[in-house]
Amino acid sequence: MSKNPFKVYNDKPTTLDGIYSQAEVGLANRNSGVLLETLALDITPTGSHYLLNHFDVPLLDAENHRLKFSGSFREQLELSIDDIKALPALTMPVTMECAGNGRAGISPRSHSMPWVYEAVSTSEWTGTKLASLIDQACPKNDVVEISFTGADYGYDMGEPHFFGRSLTLAQIKELDILLVYAMNGAPLLPQHGAPLRIIVPGWYGMASVKWLTHIEALTKPYDGYQQVKTYQLKMHKDDPGIPIRNIRVKSLMVPPGVPDWSTRKRFVHAGEVNLVGRAWSGCGVPIETVEVEIAGQWRTANLSEKNDRYAWQKWTYSWQAEPGVYVLRCRARDMNGNVQPLDPPWDQAGFANNAAQQVNVFVGLEKSKVGPLS
Amino acid sequence: MSKNPFKVYNDKPTTLDGIYSQAEVGLANRNSGVLLETLALDITPTGSHYLLNHFDVPLLDAENHRLKFSGSFREQLELSIDDIKALPALTMPVTMECAGNGRAGISPRSHSMPWVYEAVSTSEWTGTKLASLIDQACPKNDVVEISFTGADYGYDMGEPHFFGRSLTLAQIKELDILLVYAMNGAPLLPQHGAPLRIIVPGWYGMASVKWLTHIEALTKPYDGYQQVKTYQLKMHKDDPGIPIRNIRVKSLMVPPGVPDWSTRKRFVHAGEVNLVGRAWSGCGVPIETVEVEIAGQWRTANLSEKNDRYAWQKWTYSWQAEPGVYVLRCRARDMNGNVQPLDPPWDQAGFANNAAQQVNVFVGLEKSKVGPLS
Q: B22-243: what fold?
């Protein structure tokens, strides 16, 4: 081997290349991704949980915050944070993923936040069951949907609006939605929706409205921008679209070895390499298998049990790495038989790309032969 | 006015335009910036503090972590986190800024993390004085520098290394450096250097080594990659360069009004607009004045007193906004007479750009005339 073969390998351009605009980089500077190395942990470190905020973070005063129920409810509740904290509390680890995760892998790419793999995280959320509270407010017989509105406000495609979403009464009954005031044992952070948000486990993140101010019982379908104008899977611009809901089956690995600062290509020493990652699917469906592709061969990983319905599962694979250049991939299959595709599924807005992750690695000599600094 | 003049304004391309590579976007997805709206707060919310990590975050075990002193010390200390917590503790708000902040504004831009404005934050750091501990270890007479090495390891330009930096004994005596184990009243987060780091107040962030494992007393100048190969101000590639140290005088404003999701252009209602921002300079030098430019005229902002030596100062300006299109700017002057330039200072690696921030706003009709949703 020459003096530093990793350098030669690293100097070659990657296959995933693109040209991005200042606006996309601006979004990437605001909307932060999880650090993939923290996938080794069950719970994403606070502050490393991915963020996708459409508008500015509203800096709300928890003490004076009120959650207002309006529309076709028999009880027009108005609750303080203390009122909500006095209700039965529940803590639940939930894996959340942004519907736009993987957008950078779709060609041609839609102009929006250019996520590659990093818009997924798991936190422990504490709150009270939303369904019980909706029951308490008692929707009248004419109610078709319940809408949830945040304090975050701005423009999208020329339309000003508060961020809002809706759910049917049946969805509220089926999904284990939490009305949340704490994250990882601490009060919600401003950027994660303080003082109050919902968490809709198993659905992509857009449903988990932050900075929640209003819950309204509607007698006709909700037509808010973030429900009807976006977050729809569309094959082309004029496609009416299918609403995005359940998270698709997916897996990620902690990129092994050590990175190059700017290319993020990886150097790995030959010998035993413990690959580790996470796998998850929508609505609490457990993972059946995770496979790792090394040198064109798919191998079955060890998969941890599903301990928490809505949290990802850990997988590991012990790789006896020999010197060379590799593209590693991983893919999961869930208990419903859904499998990750190898190529990105097409969607004109770049939503729900669950194609298998690719990690480029260069395997050099064994550590014992060259020391830690080679 | 037509139906939605903001849309017409917002559809025009910005002057700050660029073409970015996948590698730059990848860095932006990892290295998260502060949310500029949180500049309204004295302390940046935990998790919104900007991050610039050269390599992967090492996930260290606090309980078994040891800080080792080596080289030309009379006392070869080896300290646990509990040993360090038993030393006199100090909590200090410190404004930290990445040396690469503003890189996206420099043309031609160097390939690295494409920060625009958002690599600056203020946290309350808790730890013990580094100078006292170095005294305790007692450097011998032949010592010229002390080096600080982290557990983060990887490649840059083909060179593998642990992240490390050095300081002279005189610098350690002069600067109020803290050996830190807590941030905003909670244990350090993994991505911010857990379980132990240093904070070098008043200097750009590269000096504040994270995941600290070794302190070494050197009898010849330190030649670590991050000290001699980068973090130098250079006019051209072959320029020997000037080491980057003190933070340059700078100010930022909270972008007023509400944003468009993807362009981040702002809509503001006519009437009184309370502009608010922060200003800071290196090594605890107080700010003398902050000026705001509106419609080509510079106006003096109200400046808060300097309460904490190393924390930014708040400024405000009440603007009677009339309908129209504006580019707002702000600039600060410090007590040493340093003023922010209007155009970016040249540096071939895009370091230390403290040019005045520009915020594009469209001022529409008064809120009372059109309601909140226009």
A: Sulfite Oxidase; Chain A, domain 2 (3.90.420)
Identify whether the C-beta of residue A354 lies closer than 8 Å to the C-beta of residue A249: yes
Which ipTM was obtained for this model? 0.94
Contact A258 B160 (CB under 8 A): yes
Separation in Å, CA B86 to CA B90, B127, B188: 12, 10, 17
Show which of residues 113-132 on chain A sit within 8 Å of chain B, judged by CB atoms: 114-116, 118
Looking at the whole model, is its pTM more than 0.90? Answer: yes
* Top CATH class, B5-16+248-370: mainly beta
Domain coordinates in residue numbering, chain B? 5-16+248-370, 22-243
DSSP label at residue B188: P
Query: Is B53 within 8 Å of B31 (Cβ atoms)?
Result: yes
Name the pairing type of β-strands B266-280 and B357-366.
parallel
Looking at residue A131, the DSSP 8-state letter turns out to be H
Rounded CA separation A347/A353 (Å) = 8
> Which H or E run contains A287?
strand A287-294
Contact A85, B86 (CB under 8 A): no
How many inter-chain contacts (A to B, CB under 8 Å) are there?
A: 212
Span A43-62, average pLDDT: 97
pLDDT digits (tens, 9 = 90+) for B141-195: 999 999 999 999 999 998 999 999 999 999 999 999 999 999 999 999 999 999 9
Asked if A186 reaches chain B (Cβ–Cβ under 8 Å), the answer is: yes
Would you state the pLDDT for residue B370?
A: 66
In Å, how far is B56's CA from the nearest CA of chain A? Answer: 6
Interface residue A112 vs chain B (CB under 8 A): yes
Domain A5-17+248-370, classified CATH 2.60.40.650, yes or no: yes
Please state, in angstroms and rounded to a whole number, the distance separating the CA atoms of residues A314 and A370: 32
Q: With contacts defined as CB-CB under 8 Å, which chain A residues touch B53? A: 35
- B25 contacts on A by Cβ (under 8 Å): 18, 20, 24-25, 28, 104, 114, 116
Interface test with B, best of A48, A61, A188, A261 (most B CBs within 10 A): A261
Exposed, middle or buried by CB within 10 Å (0-12, 13-18, 19+), for B78? exposed
Positions in chain B whose pLDDT score sits under 70: 1-3, 13-18, 370-374
Measured CA to CA, the distance from residue A150 to residue A139 in angstroms comes to: 20
Tokens at A6, concatenated: 């990793």
